[in-house]
C-alpha cells in the first residue's frame, strides 16, 4: 500500500538499497524506514510526515488504522488516516 503513496519505482529503489546495504547483517524496521526516506527525499516527494512516523502509526500503536489513499491526476496524492 505504501508504494502507492511514493510510487512503485521509488519504493522498489528503496527496497533494493535496503537489501543491498543490510545483506548479511541484522536489520531493524528503522533501517527500512531510513532507506525509504532517503529515496522519498531524492525523488522530491512530499509526505504529510516522515516515513518513520507514518510507519510507526501502523507498527507501534495498538489496534489498526484505516488508511485511504486517493490519487488525483497521477501527481497529487491524499492520504487520510483514521484511527
How is this structure best described in words?
With 83 residues, this protein is α+β, with helices and mostly antiparallel strands. It has one domain (2-82). It is 53% helix and 17% strand. The chain has 4 helices and 2 strands. The protein has helices spanning 2-6, 8-22, 29-43, 51-59; strands at residues 66-72, 76-82. A two-stranded antiparallel ribbon has the order 1-2. A hairpin with a 3-residue loop joins strand 1 (66-72) and strand 2. Helix 2 crosses helix 3. The longest helix has 15 residues, at 8-22. The relative contact order is 0.16. The model has no long low-confidence stretch (mean pLDDT 86).
Distance between the termini: 17 Å
In DSSP terms (H or I, runs of 4 or more residues), the helix count works out at 4
Order of helix and strand elements from N to C terminus: HHHHEE
Q: What gross morphology would you assign?
A: globular
Share of residues in helices: 40-55%
**Low-confidence runs:** none
Strand order in the sheet with the most strands = 1-2
Give me the secondary-structure category. Answer: alpha+beta
Strand content: 15-25%
Largest sheet: 2 strands, antiparallel
Instruction: Quickly count the domains.
Output: 1
Mean pLDDT: 86
Please count the beta strands (DSSP E, at least 2 residues each). 2
Return Rg in Å: 13 Å
Amino acid at each position: 500500500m505504501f508504494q502507492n503513496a511514493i510510487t512503485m519505482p521509488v519504493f522498489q529503489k528503496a527496497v533494493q538499497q535496503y537489501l543491498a546495504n543490510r545483506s548479511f547483517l541484522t536489520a531493524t524496521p528503522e533501517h527500512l524506514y531510513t532507506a525509504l526516506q532517503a529515496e522519498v527525499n531524492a525523488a522530491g516527494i512530499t509526505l504529510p510526515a516522515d516515513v518513520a512516523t507514518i510507519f510507526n502509526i501502523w507498527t507501534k500503536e495498538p489496534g489498526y488504522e484505516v488508511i485511504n489513499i486517493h490519487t488525483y491526476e497521477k501527481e497529487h496524492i491524499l492520504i487520510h488516516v483514521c484511527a
